[in-house]
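Minutes, project huddle
Topic: does the predicted pose make sense with beta-D-fucofuranose bound?
PN asked that the exact inputs be recorded in the minutes so nobody has to dig through chat later. Recorded below.
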Amino acid sequence: MKLKKLVALALTLALTATVAIGCGSSSTNNSGGDKSANTTSKKLVLGFSQIGAESGWRTAETNSIKEIPNLDSNVELKFSDAQQKQENQIKALRSFIAQKVDVIALAPVVETGWDTVFKEAKDAKIPIILVDRGVKVSDDSLYSTFIGSDFIAEGKSAGKILTDKFGKDAKLNIVELQGTVGASAANDRQKGFADYIKDYPGYKVIKSQSGDFSRAKGKEVMEAFLKSEGKNIQAVYAHNDDMAMGAIQAIEEYGLKPGVDVAIVSIDGIKDAFQAVADGKSTGVVECNPLLGPQILQAAKDLAAGKTVDKWIKSNEGVFVGDQAKKELPNRKY
Ligand code: GYE
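Predicted holo structure (tokens), as shared on screen:
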């Protein structure tokens, strides 16, 4: 009897030790203290749910985030690609919670529908960093911080490129290529632009449709706009550069000169857009910085260490028109 008990005890101890070793790389963040300061401590596990690969901008962001473990060898990155589907992002978040990651980072494809899964993360005491797009949730304490741009300001800057070029009294029919339906980047870029041109009565958005932030869709929608409006279009406002690149192709195929017959403004600042401005095919580009890896790393380390971080960590951005774009071209990293 005694021997049996001893064997059972030994077995239990061995099992506990195995489980403890097995869980080594995915510690929870409840212990406090700055783990990153000590190289012998367990790794900080960061789960990132990416939207997909719809644009050059997003590829640049993915590359920047995949660099995180190279910036800090104490961080392990779990990367998940949602292929544009919110349901896949929710699944990824649930899997991160089950794996007890220390911090979750999420680029939310759309603004709404996050409450339940965010509450699950909160109950598991896993902080959430929103990356590049925002959310609308019932309680803002469900996420820790948003790292990204001011999309309303970007929309206004895009409008200003047009009013600077054409002047206050011009009459301009504008077509708008919207981003993904329900995305904060689309909603706010539309709002910022619309608010800005309100003060310019001759500036009218005559058509507005989603091109899903992609080159192929942007081209398709622009073809349809040209079919119905033809030479009635004086300007294109695209919520991202890829859709503007698609629009440029459509305009050329239609037999008009982009940048000359039809002005083009867009947001992001990918190399192709800078090249188009330098070539005179685009009027101007508003920069939106995708190289967020270093800021995400810092926020993740701070949160895992129990520190509070700013609710909105803004990225620095510029506006590039004409020669400015030519000068900047050799420096573009994406
Ligand atoms: O502008 C676009 C992309 O969310 C800010 O998403 C991001 C946007 C970016 O695919 O190109």
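Observations noted during the meeting:
- Confidence is low (pLDDT under 50) at residues 6-39.
- The CA atoms of residues 170 and 202 lie 6 Å apart.
No decisions taken; revisit at the next huddle.
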